[in-house]
Specification:
The protein is of the alpha/beta class and 205 residues long. The protein has a single domain, classed as TIM Barrel (Alpha-Beta Barrel). It is built from seven helices and eight strands. Helix 5 links the parallel strand 4 and strand 5. InterPro entries: Glyco_hydro/deAcase_b/a-brl (IPR011330), NODB_dom (IPR002509), Polysacc_deacetylase_ArnD (IPR050248). This is Polysaccharide deacetylase family protein.
Length: 205
């Protein structure tokens, strides 16, 4: 079962984390996981510029290390950078010590205390220790499924237009796999919601 719009009761699992921004103003929060990625990141930045849209990029440490110029471009365009771990570890399948070390290693290349767990999965102990270390965990309220190539992109667009609401944190992916769908989905989201008077902002700190 694919859940596009995450239910509010799920937020109780990690009440100190951010799942969405409570606002009645027409604002949306685009986020991009797994980058930076050559060519794709540049394409995303170009699309965002057309709408004066700001976003938050949750970058993998290994990619941030390999592509420092792309990291500089993200920051130069006024976007926010978040930590998405060094090697995209699944917290629930990783030991706490190894998982935290992976996050800390990524922090050397992302220089941020905003953290999004890969797959949205981490143990309560990991979450609590990250909080003590000064990290703010960011989940999401809308998952685009741009990475799921079994879903027709037309359905992804339909679901986005139907279910995204003010204050939503939206997950897209800065990766080669997701680009097949994201290159259609992102322009549709930007155009549709801009015409409805929405602004796109980075997650407030």
């Amino acid at each position: 079962m694919r859940i596009f719009k995450y239910p509010k009761w799920l937020r109780r699992l990690y009440p100190d984390s951010i799942w969405g921004i409570f606002t009645s103003n027409p604002i949306l929060y685009l986020t991009f996981d797994d980058g930076p990625c050559p060519e794709i990141t540049d394409w995303i930045l170009q699309e965002l510029r057309q709408y004066n849209a700001k976003a938050t990029f949750f970058c993998l440490g290994k990619n941030s290390k390999n592509y420092p110029l792309l990291m500089s471009k993200i920051i130069a365009d006024g976007h926010l950078v978040g930590n998405h771990s060094m090697r995209h570890l699944n917290g629930r399948k990783s030991g706490t010590k190894a998982f935290l070390a992976d996050v800390e290693e990524a922090a050397r290349y992302t220089s941020t205390t905003l953290f999004r767990p890969p797959y949205g999965k981490l143990k309560f102990k990991q979450h609590n220790l990250l909080k003590k270390a000064g990290y703010q965990t960011i989940f999401w309220s809308y998952l685009s499924y741009d990475f799921d190539l079994k879903i027709p992109v037309e359905k992804l667009v339909e679901q986005a237009k139907k279910k995204i609401k003010a204050g939503d944190i939206i997950v897209l992916h800065d990766s080669e796999k997701a680009f097949v769908n994201m290159r259609v989905l992102l322009p549709e989201i930007l155009t549709y919601f801009s015409e409805k008077g929405f602004q796109f902002k980075a997650i407030p700190r």
